[in-house]
Amino acid sequence: MIDLHMHSRYSEGGEFTPSELVGECAKKGIRMMSVTDHNCAKANKEAAEAAVKMGLLFPVETVLCKDGIPSNGRDD
User: Which of 34, 49, 63, 71 could be bridged to 4 by S-S, CB 3.0 to 4.6 A?
Assistant: First the structure.
């Protein structure tokens, strides 16, 4: 099973830490997952490390936006 759209506690409405979210996925048989927190990539490192330990695939792509416009992450 695959779920590529879920939120950690770093997004409004997310209830689990990134590691807890990975654990919940493992319990439910989800083998590939991705965290799609709103305007935040804070969960990615912790979730990726937990996914490796639990044998899950965790593809990551981060798009930074400023005022709704894709950004290179710099203020210039």
Answer: 34
Residue 28 included in any domain:
yes
Residue 76 resides in a domain: no
Number of independent structural domains in the chain = 1
Q: 7-31, pLDDT tens digit by residue?
A: 999 998 899 999 999 999 999 999 9
Cα torsion angle, 60, 17, 8, 6, sign: positive
In-domain check, residue 48: yes
**pLDDT tens-digit profile of 27-52?**
999 999 999 888 788 899 999 999 99
| 42 backbone dihedrals φ, ψ, rounded to 5° | -60, -30
